[in-house]
Amino acid sequence: MLLAEFDYAAPESLDEALALLGGGGNVRILAGGQSLLPTLKLRLDRPDLVVDLRKISELSYVREENGEIAIGTLTTYAELLASDFIESGVARCLAEAAASVGDLQVRNLGTIGGSLSHADPAADIPAAALALDCTLVARSEEGDRTIGATDFFHGLWTTALLPSEMLREVRFRKANGGGAYEKLRQAASGFALVGAAAVVEMDGDTIAGARVALTGVGSAPLRLHALEERLAGETLGEELLRDVCGDAGEAIESPLSDIHASAEYRAAMAGVTARRAILRAAG
Amino acid sequence: MMATTVPKLIGARIRRKEDPRLITGSSTYTDDLKLPGMLSMVLVRSPHAHARITEVDLSEAEGMDGVVAIVTGADLEGTVAGLPVAHNLEDLKEPPHRPRSIDKVRYVGDAVAAVVAVDPSRARDAAERVHVGYESLEAVVDIEAATEDGSPLVHEEEGSNIAFEFPFLAGDVDEALLNADVVLRLRLMNQRQIPVALEPRSVIAQFDRGFGKMTLWSSTQIPHLLRTQLAIGLGFPEHSIRVIAPEVGGGFGSKLNVYAEEFLAAHLARTLGRPVKWTADRSEGFLATTHGRDQLNDVEVGVDGEGRLLGMRVRMLQDLGAYHQLLTPAIPTLTVLMLPGCYRLPNLEVHLSGVFTNKTPTDAYRGAGRPEATFLIERVMDHIAAELDLDPAEVRRRNFIAADDFPATTATELIYDSGDYQTALDRLLEVADYAGLRREQKERRARGEVMGIGLSTYVEICGIGPSAALPAGGWEACTVEVRRTGAVVVKTGISPHGQGQETTFAQIVADRLGVPIEAVEIAHGDTDYVPEGIGTFGSRGMAVGGAALSLALDTIRAKAKKFAAHLLEAHEEDIEYEGDRLGIKGAPDRFVTLEDVIGAAYLATDLPEGVEPGLAATHFFEPPNFTFPFGAHLCVVDIDPETGEPTLRRYVGVDDCGNVINPMIVDGQLHGGIAQGIAQALFEEAVYDRNGQLVTGTLMDYALPKASYLPNYELHRTTTPTPVNPLGAKGIGEAGTVGSSPCVINAIVDALSPYGVRHLEMPARPEKIWRAMGSGASE
């Protein structure tokens, strides 16, 4: 539990934080600390500098702007869950994902921006971000840069963020339809053994459009584009979903295999969770 | 006058006296203590499971800021003895277990050097700069491979990885199997588990040069045994050692030990002349605190056509890990003893081998050998039921030792003190509505749902125990002092660390002496204040420690009666002691109170003839036998046919631990115990890879269940007192764990029986269940 030595800064403005980030060296951002602190305690990471964002209160918000819901990077899971904006509709998948994170203590401290930036391959929020087709706003001293969710996650703990950048905001369009998140929990960590987020828009009995994403199955969360295409325009039904989702696992290039579950099980469960998520999102 | 009636506290649901300080964080654990000039110790541990040490280079670390001393194994040779192992086995191989390794490391976490610095961070920084050269050796990981010729050897000088053989034979198993209508064969793996006490281990040693006195604070279950072992191991006179177990945040058997860090801290405090503290962090504890279970059993069992046991043969391999800790080799011998379970088993043959591997040593873990036995025999019962198409409850009924057979001698020569297994099972089937559940199961199965009902009926060996059966004494000691103001101090040799004896002992004192429960203090865990004791383990706190308390209270009551008789000018045998009044039988207005007696005893101006002043007594209780609590458990499990995820819908227990002092505490012990058994059945498993690396090295991978994973418990009791001690109490600390693992697995196998499943290894993770259903059989 004894951290290696590092410098620590707790800037009070975003600009100050960005200057520290751009200053070179191995710099780590401390948001809720739910991933960073265990890593430091195990001495798996030895930053030169830790930049603590928690004094920058303007980074914590959930609000509606121009038909979009905007979430500040420092918003905790608990704050997000307390917001009216994600109670229903497509955002439901984000609410369910956030509610399934860790335990109450983790949800009171962990942040949305932290989860997305850390990009743990089994984190819940990234799947919801993909299904909602979020826009991620990165900020550096140069200014803002927007990145689509599908371009954001590059692999194991790696994202499109540059060393000089930090995630400032996540946004998604308020759209018609419903959302849902289904998860099989890894019993020890509470992370997703397999998680599926779905956003579905219905036109009567017909699926007008769907976005489905998986987490926990590969080195990065992924959208199931082929599956989405097969759903579009079809009549919603148990048989269709079984057929379309049955081979959902095939979209995963090299499914994770570890002591908690084999690749085969994860691939099979990808289909089950995807089907259940779609069904609930459509309902 | 009217006789006053005081409500009895024994048997009442009294809230625990210790809880307010524990819940509000106002109690003191070892790591909370800060002594002037205290130094911190951090250990350099091996990253290899098996390697030869080629070099230990301290030069960089020794020069670092704040470093006071670094010691290696070689520095300790001749000064600090090896760690003790207590056993009754013949021909046990006892390779040296040095507090620090010298030549070789034998498991990941085996310590090579100890770094002492002015604070823990500096000690840890310096420990990283101790450069140890290792020549990696092939690791011994698989327990069966370890027994084969040509296997690499954990201890070369011993010539084999088999540390001991323990053959046992009662009757004629060959003959029994020959005559059996059915012979069943099972292989059962009782997986390795990691005890996770909320408080990791922690030690502080302080040496007073003036008095030559060593004080050791340790998060231990056995301060007195530790005191003795420190005296032996460090060559100290025992009167110069004081061991204090402050608040101890759980142990589950993992603190029933004498650890290297305790020897090291004491040695370093003495040589450096400053207090030395060591506290494990969670991951270090996973490597360097004993593990539990890890036993492989091959079972052959013969039954007649009615499902009655005729004979059983068991080949048992116990993974000991790399070294013996205090009770490592003794644990599986408890499994052997308890193999007959609740049943008549005339013929039994066991061959137990204890095997060294390159893993963390195993030792006691809640249940300690008995869960393994119960798991084995309860899986056997369900196999018999499946094979003969009988109801599992009926198979048990046919094999139970009958209520009028007690005391009952088993094939393993134990004498079960008292019991009534059939009544407990009948009660369970009634309160759980077993018939109704079976009907429901039939209906659900017709709808394609997967539901299982599991039973287990257990008996365990507790109240440990008669000294003759143990390597280091099985008695317990207690002093009761009635102080001048009416306060009562109990000094007990047990060392509770969550079991609640500060409350239950106070209930007994309040009833027996007629004092308010608030006037009673239960002192424990300090060898200078409580001079003798054995400790808390093996569900012995009440059955043995409480019995010693009871003897001391008898003596105090008898002495109080002498004073009362003297004050009332009556005969001692005519005095009745009820509540706080000591009066003359049949003369309700002639009495004195305990207060009067205390006054007389301490003023001592008018002592009865031949009676000493004061009102205090010390007793040692030697149990004539173990106690054998028992019970019957049932659970209902629903399985998601698509994912294999099991949900425990109901968990019902009927437990019998003899007389109950505090039902709320008994329920609490059962809740925790059952949770730990469910955890073994469904979640927990220490996984090593083939190089001997602990893969489940943190709580991110080692699946400790969360509260939300567990069901509500429906608990009921029968009461069959034990004749073994004056309280009639048997012990309840481990019963829940012993009974629950087989109950859950039996339910899951029952649920999967339509798929032809007869057994599933623990932990029954969703994927295992899913595969057992035929890989994604969703139809």
Describe this structure in words.
The complex is a heterodimer of chains A (about 280) and B (about 775). Chain A is an alpha+beta fold. Helix content of chain A is about 30%, strand content about 25%. In chain A, a hairpin with a 2-residue loop joins strand 12 and strand 13 (about 205-215). In chain A, helix 4 (about 90-100) packs antiparallel against helix 7 (about 125-130). Chain B is an alpha+beta fold and about 775 residues long. Chain B folds into three domains: about 20-25 and about 475-620, Aldehyde oxidase/xanthine dehydrogenase, molybdopterin binding domain (Aldehyde Oxidoreductase, domain 4, 2-Layer Sandwich), CATH 3.30.365.10; about 35-135 and about 200-250 and about 255-290, Aldehyde oxidase/xanthine dehydrogenase, a/b hammerhead (Aldehyde Oxidoreductase, domain 3), CATH 3.90.1170.50; about 290-465 and about 625-770, Aldehyde oxidase/xanthine dehydrogenase, molybdopterin binding domain (Aldehyde Oxidoreductase, domain 4, 2-Layer Sandwich). In chain B, the strands form seven sheets. A seven-stranded mixed β-sheet of chain B has the order 3-5-1-12-9-10-11, with helices on both faces. A five-stranded mixed β-sheet of chain B has the order 7-15-14-13-8, sandwiched between helices. In chain B, helix 10 (about 330-340) packs parallel to helix 11, helix 11 crosses helix 12 and helix 15 runs parallel beside helix 16. Chain B is globular and about 85 Å long. Chains A and B meet through helix 11 of A and helix 4 and helix 20 of B.
